[in-house]
Amino acid sequence: MLVAVALVVTGIVMSPLLTLTDIVVKGRDAVPERIILGAASDQIGQPLVALNFDAIRERLSTVTRIQSFTTEIQPPHTLVIRVVERQAIGFMAIESRWVVVDGAGVVIDTVSDKPAGIPELLGESTTDNAFSAMAETLVSLPGSVRANVASISAQTRDSVRFTLRGVGHEIVWGSPDNSAVKIVVMDRALRVADRSNGVFEIDVSAPDNIVLQPLR
């Protein structure tokens, strides 16, 4: 009796009733859908219980823009692939090239024209403490603020500073520590600076002692 039941179950899970016919991709933006679908396309027609997830994982791991992904079987015929893409925090000039990087310093794109709309990180490496400080600072900023950063620099972890687009206010940030408080006081200081119709260096490195100095 047990053997008969086992044979029936095996027959069901290995039958065409539970084979892969559809692959659904979710979460993608910059990565072409065809690349993600291609990582699993050879699994079409296979029983859901026999899908080769190691092969899918190996192929997707070569796509630099993908930070992580998960797979989910949805019987009777669907495989869902959810991806999390690496997010560009800015670009750098390295070896006469413009490279777009994420917060971990992973190069996610190389372009011939200077990128627009993202900050320029003024550094020479993606592996030193200065880069880590710049990246940590940019990641901590709200998207609306980060979009207004023209360039950012640091010599050490404690010397981050950046320039805002438009008027050109320069923000002395110091270290990435206490970023939440610095964001609040910077917003207040920018309101004061904008009412003054000038260009200022705004030092929020010690957020309980903000300093505004006219640049011009």
From TrEMBL:
Keyword Transit peptide recorded: no
InterPro entries named among the record's database cross-references: FtsQ_DivIB, POTRA, POTRA_FtsQ_type
One Pfam assignment: POTRA_1
Record carries keyword Transmembrane helix: yes
Keyword annotations from UniProtKB, A to Z: Cell cycle, Cell division, Cell membrane, Membrane, Transmembrane, Transmembrane helix
Cell compartments where the protein resides: Membrane
A GO cellular component annotation in the UniProt record: plasma membrane
Domain POTRA: 18-86
Chief location of this protein within or outside the cell: membrane
Any Gene Ontology biological process: cell division
Family annotation (PANTHER family): CELL DIVISION PROTEIN DIVIB (PTHR37820), CELL DIVISION PROTEIN FTSQ (PTHR37820:SF1)
Protein name per UniProt: Unannotated protein
